[in-house]
Structures are given as C-alpha cells and as structure tokens.
Amino acid sequence: MLKTTIIGASGYTGAELAIMVKKHPALTLSGLYVSANSLDAGKSIAELHGQLAGIVDDAVLPLTDVEAVAKQSDVVFLATAHEVSHDLAPVFLEHGCKVFDLSGAFRVNNSEFYPTFYGFEHQHGGWLENAAYGLAEWNVQQIKDAQLIAVPGCYPTASQLAIKPLVEAGLVDTQQWPVINAVSGVTGAGRKATMTNSFCEVSLHPYGVFTHRHQPEISSHLGCDVIFTPHLGNFKRGILATITMKLKAGVSEQDVAKAINDAYKEKPLVRIKNAMPQLQNVQKTPFCDIGWKVQGEHVIVASAIDNLLKGASSQAMQCVNIHFGYPELTALL
Amino acid sequence: MLKTTIIGASGYTGAELAIMVKKHPALTLSGLYVSANSLDAGKSIAELHGQLAGIVDDAVLPLTDVEAVAKQSDVVFLATAHEVSHDLAPVFLEHGCKVFDLSGAFRVNNSEFYPTFYGFEHQHGGWLENAAYGLAEWNVQQIKDAQLIAVPGCYPTASQLAIKPLVEAGLVDTQQWPVINAVSGVTGAGRKATMTNSFCEVSLHPYGVFTHRHQPEISSHLGCDVIFTPHLGNFKRGILATITMKLKAGVSEQDVAKAINDAYKEKPLVRIKNAMPQLQNVQKTPFCDIGWKVQGEHVIVASAIDNLLKGASSQAMQCVNIHFGYPELTALL
Amino acid sequence: MLKTTIIGASGYTGAELAIMVKKHPALTLSGLYVSANSLDAGKSIAELHGQLAGIVDDAVLPLTDVEAVAKQSDVVFLATAHEVSHDLAPVFLEHGCKVFDLSGAFRVNNSEFYPTFYGFEHQHGGWLENAAYGLAEWNVQQIKDAQLIAVPGCYPTASQLAIKPLVEAGLVDTQQWPVINAVSGVTGAGRKATMTNSFCEVSLHPYGVFTHRHQPEISSHLGCDVIFTPHLGNFKRGILATITMKLKAGVSEQDVAKAINDAYKEKPLVRIKNAMPQLQNVQKTPFCDIGWKVQGEHVIVASAIDNLLKGASSQAMQCVNIHFGYPELTALL
Amino acid sequence: MLKTTIIGASGYTGAELAIMVKKHPALTLSGLYVSANSLDAGKSIAELHGQLAGIVDDAVLPLTDVEAVAKQSDVVFLATAHEVSHDLAPVFLEHGCKVFDLSGAFRVNNSEFYPTFYGFEHQHGGWLENAAYGLAEWNVQQIKDAQLIAVPGCYPTASQLAIKPLVEAGLVDTQQWPVINAVSGVTGAGRKATMTNSFCEVSLHPYGVFTHRHQPEISSHLGCDVIFTPHLGNFKRGILATITMKLKAGVSEQDVAKAINDAYKEKPLVRIKNAMPQLQNVQKTPFCDIGWKVQGEHVIVASAIDNLLKGASSQAMQCVNIHFGYPELTALL
C-alpha cells in the first residue's frame, strides 16, 4: 500500500482526490493538509464537503512541517495554488515522493512563461525540465518515467484531446489558427466566495479573452498557435470545448475519422460519439466525450469533460495508475 | 414632480427601485446613495447592475451629508441594513420627507422585538409607533396617513397574503399553529460574496429553523403563532410559501373560497389561481399568485411572489402610489 | 454469480440499476428489457443514456417472451409502470426469481388502496400479502425472507426515514397530523416528454395537493395520518422533505436525539447531520441525510435523498445486498 | 389606434407580443389566434402563459376565417411556423394589413434558399422581393417603406449586430470565414414537449453543426461566408454569440472601436460595453449588449440578446415603431 497525501484538501479537486484514494486498492490515505493558516485547518473534510460524510471523514491538518509529511508519504497530490506547488513540489521530490501536481507550476518548460502568465520567476528549472505533462492518453511513457507529473489544466485537457489527433496526423492548416470556444462550470474558479461566483451574478459570458494562461499552455503542447476564448457557464461542473479548424487541402472526412479513431481506440476514457457531446453525459465521470463534423475544408470538433475529474483529479489518478502500472481505470469508475 | 432619493442603491432592491422611479410619471430621481465608505461609491449604478445601462446610468454617491440630502428629497426609499435604516429614517422624517423603509427597523411595534431578533435597542419609539406596516392590500388607510411606511419583509408578504384572509374571517383553528414552509431565491440574501451564496454551494436546504426573524414579524401582524421554516432554493428570484392550516369545525370549502376572493376582489396585484401557483409566473413581476385546496378539516394555501418586487421594491412603490393617491399600478407593469 | 435482469431499462432508474449491476461482484447482467412495442427496443442503453457509454453498452431488448426471460434470471428488477409490474411480477416469481419491484404495485397490503389510488383492482393478493416493503433500514428481516421486495417510493423513503424514529419511539402527538412538505427533482416524473417537464415550464410549485398516492403509502407504513404536499423543483435529481410535528407533552430534545441516533447508529447510509441537510450532498449518492431541531413542543426534521438512488435504484440494490447477505454497501459507493 | 392581431399567440413569442401590444399607446389588441385545430383554441392566453394573468386575459381563438380577421386588422404579427407564415402573409397583405412576420418565410430573397433549408418551394416571390429584412438598427428606411417586414431570427440578430459594423467598414479579412459560436436558451426551440427540451435532458451541447438554417440567413445578409455553430444552453432565455474574425492587414484597435461606436451611437437598444457582455443583463430586456477585444490580427466580438425579445418579439415591435414613426422604444421598456 502506498501512503498517499493530499495537499490542498479543502478545495473541490482535493475532495474528489480524497474519494478516489479511499476507493483505490493500492493506496492508503495518509494525510489531508491545508495551508497552516487556513481557517479550515482542524475541521473534518466532511464538514467542508458534506457529500464526503461516511466516505472520508478525516480531519484536514495544517501543513506546518513539510519535511515530516514528505517522510511519511509515497505519493503526494498537490491540489494547491501555482506558487504553493512551485515551492512545495521540490521538497517532496527530494524526499523521494512521487508528486502529481494539479497546478500550473510545472506544465510548460519555458522560462519566460512563468513571469508572463503566472507572475513569478520559476526557481526549479531542473524539475520543470524533467516533469512529465500528464495528458494521460498521449504521454504514457513520460508519465511512467517521471517522478513529477504536471497534470494539465481543465481547458487544456478538453482542447488538446480534441485537437491533437488532427494536428499530430498533419491534417490541420495551422496557418489559420484553430478557434477554441469553451464554457466551464463555476467550480473551475475554485472554492471561494467572490462576487463573480455569487449565485445571483453568474450567467453565461466570455472572460479572459486573449489573456487566459491556458492559451499558451495549449499552444505550447500542441505546437501551434490557437485562439482560446473561455466562458463561464451557469452550471457547477463540466467543460464543453467547441473547436473550429481549417483542414489542409485534400483532407477528407475519412482522414479525420481515421485520425481520431486511431488516436483513442485503446483509450477507454475517451469516448468517440456519433453525435456532438452533451455536458451531462460526462459530469461526475472521468470520461472525455468527443464528436466532430467536416464540411468542405473545415472541421468542427467538440469535447466535453468534467472539469474537476478528467480536467483535474481523475486525470491525476489516471496518471498514478499509469505510473505505477495499475489498471488504468482503478478507482475511477 | 416629487424628488425621490434611494439610499442603498448598490443592492438588488435599490436597482429595482431605480428602474421604477425612472418609469414613474410623478417621480423624478434626485439621487442614488450608498454608505460613505462603500467601494461602490462614485460608480455608475449601471456598472454595478449591468441590466440598468441605458435605463438608469446615474452615479451612486457616498452618503456623507444626510441633512443636505434630506433637504433635497420629497420621497426617500431606504434599501439599507436594519441598523442603518433605524438611524437614518428619523433624520429624513424630521426634514419632512416621506420615508419608505425596506428594512426591518420599523416593522414591529414592540420594544422587546428589536433586542431579541435584531440585536439592537430601538431608539425611536415614537416613529416606530406611528409607522404604517406597508402590507399594501391590507393597510391602505394607514399607508395613506403615515409619514413612515415600513415595507414588509419578503417572507412575511408571501405568508400573510396567503394566511390573512382566513384568519381575519375567523376560519382557522389557530390553536394548531399554521405551518409555513417557504423557499426563497438567493437574491433574498442580498448582493454580497459569501460561501453560502457561492454558485457551487447553493442547493435546496432549510435554514434559520425556529430562529428566523421573519417568524415573529408574521406572528405579530397576523395575531397568532406560526411555525415558519425558510429554505434556500437554487434560483435567483422569487419566494414560494406553502401553508398548512387546520380549519375550525364546520368550516367549508365555500367559506374558504369566499374569504379569499372577498379579500382580493379589488386588489389587482393579487391573482387567485384555479391551480397552485408557479414561481416563474411571478418572477420579475409585482404580482402575488395564490392557490389553495381544502380537504376535511385542513386547508393548504400556497402563494408566490418575486422577493425583490412584491417582497420589497414594487410593494414599496405600491405604497408610494397608495400614499400619494396615484393609480395603484403606476410604474409597476 | 446471479443472473440479473432489468425490466424497464430505458428509464432513469433502469439506467442507474444497470451501472450498479455492472459494479456488483456477485451479479452478472443477463438482460436489459423494455416493453415489446417501445421505440427504444434494439438500441444500446448507452444511446438512450449517454453517460453509460463505456460502462454499460448492452442493447435494450423487447420483452416478448417473459417466461423465457424468467428462466434465465435469478434476480429481476422491475423498473416498470405500476400496472406492468403488477402483471409481470407473478410470472417471474412463479419461476423462482427474486423480484425487486420499484413500482407501487406491491407496496400497500390493502385491497382498497389500488382501485382508489392506482386505478386498478389488484389481482395478486397472495403476492401482495407476502411482499416485503423494502425500506432498507427498517425492514431487514422481511427483506431477507421475502421473494418479492416492493421498494418504497422516493417521497415515502425520504419521509419515513425522517419520521419513523420518532413515531416508533412514541414521541409524536399524532392527533396533530405531521406536515410533510417535499420538493422533488424533475427526474421523479420519469423519462418522457411532457409540457410539465419541459425545461421552459419547470419552476417551483406544489402539485398533487391532498391527492398524491404517496400520502397513503406513507400513512399506511407509519401507522398515522400525515399531510403530504409534494412540489416540483427546478433541479434534475434529489428530494428534500421538511416535516413539522408536534411532540407529546414532556418530550425533550434529548429524547428526540436519542430516538434518531439509536435508529440509525448501525445504518451506514443514513447520515445524521448537526445542521439541516443540503440537497447537493446527496445527489448521485445512496445516502439519506437527516437534520432536526426542537423548539417547545414542536420538532422539525428534514431529510434529503437522491430520488433515483436511495429513492429507487440504490435502495433496490441495498435490498439485494440485505436479501442475499452481501455487505450492505456493495456496488453502492 | 391601430387594430393589432397576433397569429400564433400560444407560443412564447406570441405571449411577449401580447404584453407589448397592451402597453403600446397607439395599438389596440384586436385578436389573438391559434391554428384552427390547436388544442389551445378557446383558452385564455393567461391559462397558457400564467404570467400574463391580470395583464392580458383575452382568449386565443381558432383562426378559421383568415379574410374576416384580415378585414378587422391594421397590423398583424405572425408568430407562426415558416410554412404557415408563407401561406398567411399574402392574405393579410392583400387586405392592406401591415405584416410583421417572425418566421423565416420572407427573410432571404433567393429562390433556392427555401427548398434547401426550409423544405418547401416559395410561392410568393413578389412579396419575398419586396419584404424588408427587419434588422432594426440597420434597415430603417426599408422598414419604413415596406408593407411586409421579415423580422430576423434570434441567432442572426445577435450575430449580425456584432459582425456587421466591421464588415460594413471593410475591416474584416473575410477570406478567413468569421467563426460564430452561439449558445441559446431553450425557449428558442418553441413551446412544445420533446425529449430534447425535457428538463432532465437539457445540458450544454452543440447542435445543427454546419446545417442550421440561420447560417445562410446570416451569410446572405452579411455578404460573406461564416461558420455558425449553435449550442443549446441550460437556461430558459437569451443568446450569447462569440465571434472570432481575422482583421485585414493594418487594421488597428482604434479602427474597430470607431466602426462599432459609429454604427450604434444613435441606437438606444444596442449597448456597447467596456467588458464582455453577460447574458443576465439582457434577459427579459429589448437590448443587445456588445463587447469586443483586438489582439494582433484577430478580433473577438461578443453579443448578447434575449432570444424572445430582441431576437423576435421586441424587435418586431421596434419595427412597428420605426414603420409608423412612433418613438423607437415605445412599449419596449
């Protein structure tokens, strides 16, 4: 049994991780932590997330002595803010822990990226260079080999799973930038009280136009420019991404079908649909549903995921399964 | 034209009042105010409430010199916290303004009520004694005569409009307390950022069981005990109240029908339905819909209102119309 | 492995059952059926319920030869209309199947009940008499012994789990009828297209006042009269029931606490909360959350369940686990 | 007073029209009609649309004698299916009525359009040729002059109001087709019971990809190709359209600002926002909110409207006001 620690257990992704660790036959939950000054420290996780009562009732503890926690952990999930992950990950890594980081701190191996999009200079270039990017269906070998797995963001997961088969197969005319329109549920903003997230203020609208940090994450890993426009939707969970692309001259509908089907034929968590995906079919599931259609020289691909699961926690657990050689779906269904 | 001032214009009820004042042919909007230290001071009201753009674009000003504002106002709406209304109302009243207070500061003429349920000693017993309780369909003469009108709370409006016809007609066995179950939209909690109001945390649940301050407000004005259980619902606007009562021996369905129909036959804003009321029929309207059913010795009456309108702002404007003798529906439809 | 058949697999409860059967280590899914003339016959269940893709992809077959299906089944779930269950259950029972019926066809052992509330004469008084009422936390021995288990309705499950501890302990003054106000999600009406269930028409409202067939089901099994007022809520899943009762003279808060805690201290699927229950904590879970409060001679108890799970499918599976002696939570979490 | 008739009064747009006709000081409601075989014929419109009670309570009558109705009408709103409008409009026009058609029957002056996208041959080429396209902010003179006004569809209104200023000013590189992603509320599908519109089945998803009939309507009136991807959203009312376009070389942010501001500076129902538009700011209003942002050679413009009002009924009434010379906002606010 691998001793498994969750840092950032008061948030929505931390709660999902806790449930999965409890279900996992090879993991044992060795500790739930929040930052030392959090008002939630000392409470039961089920007091913060009522749905966990009777499933996980452990207390969330203040993270005061990181080294002590590291010594008692084999696997560490970091469901923490970017800067916190940036600072904590190296400590756990140096103690030999396997680290699955759900933040953006180790996703893009480019020194200019962090000051520009995250507002801090990256201090751990070595770990950054050796981190695997945990897009589970695409980076199996890296996930197996790395000690640090940077789990992709929610929008990048939905977007890349839809676009990557076509770009990798050389079917897209990337001179004309793919246009990604995506709508996220409100849990994507985290568990906190803001006017933007107030029930009375939420209604569909675009935000972060041309400035969202997930745009360069997507571009960096796809290897092409994209236009990414996120929207806030009036639902709690899920992301729907609709992507419009120009195909290279001569690319047929059959070429598109083959590229997508080949990419995912052995991947049980990506479901290729005959129709366009529906958000509710993936909410509270670890799946990514993909639908697509070609007309003339354009293709539209749509993908749907649960932002907290395939866009965060269940993909992190999927990376655990891949890394340690457990069946890929363990604790996910 | 009556110069009309709204204090507390940054909140949801303030915004609704501003729209109605603009529509009212006999009122002119002379000022929108927020507390002097509010972060909203100086902004356009349409920046706070985007739907007002092009309708009301005036700035909300910091309320620094109350007396100066009072001198320039004929009509004052107080859409302010209870303690603020308690302190401000007398200043406006002493300058001769007609004051329509949407808070709880002058609703119950009982000195023990305020320390117990609002946490402060009432300092203005004289004004409290002379305030009209603005339940518009029932207190027409008092609303005409008073200088200060205490507009009822949202739950009390929905509850009393449903119960009062039967209690006044002497049909209810009040030894067995009427049971009021009511569900309110989230705007009822005001415009602010809290975890309770966070989009991701809102789902149907009871709150304030046996302790909500609207219970004694209802009991006081009905003249009988009630059990009042409020719930938070997953919608923005509206209240549905479902009330179960025991009838006195021998009371028939016809007696109930007569009492309800007689009470409201000349009241255009109360609609007696053949069926039970639906929340969406009253959302964003000034109406109260009422439905009822008798079986054996029990009656169930349900009522639905928009909590921000008939439960606050439009009832305040209805009181203005009654007080000054304008047609009752002016600016309401 | 027990061969398990689901009749009525095109509905919402059928889909939930299919997922649980797949997860259950002692059950094997031997067939999904719909009525012979259903337009859904022949389709994959994942075409009807997109979220099942990759989990259960079996076709739903037309039920043409009931006897043949019975011969190949050890366990049968009937997720069918009342009349259909009434006709089908005896066939399966006579072939030795264990039948778990989610309809109302065998819930109330009273010959007058069916003509009055379901519109048909019951033809199978023998089976009716011997059916266990599958309120899992209360009727363990009957569920173990019976060949036919009538799984309670969604409202009756929520209501009885809240009321029964107090009535059984003799704490309630039932001369004054308990008042049950309950709000259900729209899935409670089944998977079909009606104006009432149209997205644009749904908003909170009472329905079936004094006439809902769940009222006599509740009264019959509690052994006291109740007033039951159901409401339709603007959410997909879940029921919240708020119950107001008068306590017998001299009953204390401690008495109430003891009755409730004693009733459920060994029951892992009922969670007694310090606060009132929240709907979202039970949605998509098999739990029932209960909260309560006493003031003077009144008690308010609220309970929340997922209407499709604890109110139907997961309680049916819980009965399977009890009947066959599997751990009670198998396939439920 | 102009005698005003609404055909198709049982639908959502018909109900909105009825409210506006009642408010309009120059119009008198002379009749509400539904098709002769409708089950709604004979009912009060307030029975179909509960929110109208006390505002419009007229009966909806079966349309049996079109000529007789035409003789008693000055203004006719057709809130009817495309084929019905196609057949009815000429009858009313020949009797001298002014016809405001909310269907697609007269929107595109192209004989091939109707067989391809609406499934019928157009029989009234003369009226089609002389119809004004009622995009109110752009076609004032045509709306003044024509006897038949074809009010644009909901998606085309939102899309064109956002795109047209830039295309008309010659700023867009239309070689690269503008990409329109739009999300509509469920009322856009009309008032009817279908599985697609069932409360339990609605969740965000694309539909009609590459095949929606609003795509050629938009292209035809803009004069350039577009890619239009509609989505169904989990809300009742409103449309948000997000449009991505490539600018011609050398076009600056200032050029874009000038084009948009110039287009609407005298148009009170189009509100140019500093930020991206929010759906709830336009729900139940006649406004179109527009926001935009430029980066490099791309521009993103987003627009929001209420699909039943600016996307249908209030734009029809705006056309009435323009046609007859009433103040543009009459009966709209």
From TrEMBL, chains A, B, C, D:
Catalytic activity: N-acetyl-L-glutamate 5-semialdehyde + phosphate + NADP(+) = N-acetyl-L-glutamyl 5-phosphate + NADPH + H(+)
GO CC, one annotated term: cytoplasm
Swiss-Prot/TrEMBL keywords: Amino-acid biosynthesis, Arginine biosynthesis, Cytoplasm, NADP, Oxidoreductase
A molecular function GO annotation: NADP+ binding
Record's subcellular location: Cytoplasm
One annotated GO biological process: L-arginine biosynthetic process
Keyword Membrane: no
Keyword Oxidoreductase among UniProt keywords: yes
Main location: cytoplasm
EC number: 1.2.1.38
PANTHER family: N-ACETYL-GAMMA-GLUTAMYL-PHOSPHATE REDUCTASE, CHLOROPLASTIC-RELATED (PTHR32338:SF10), N-ACETYL-GAMMA-GLUTAMYL-PHOSPHATE REDUCTASE, CHLOROPLASTIC-RELATED-RELATED (PTHR32338)
Family: Belongs to the NAGSA dehydrogenase family. Type 1 subfamily.
Name recorded for this polypeptide: N-acetyl-gamma-glutamyl-phosphate reductase
Organism listed in the record: Vibrio xiamenensis
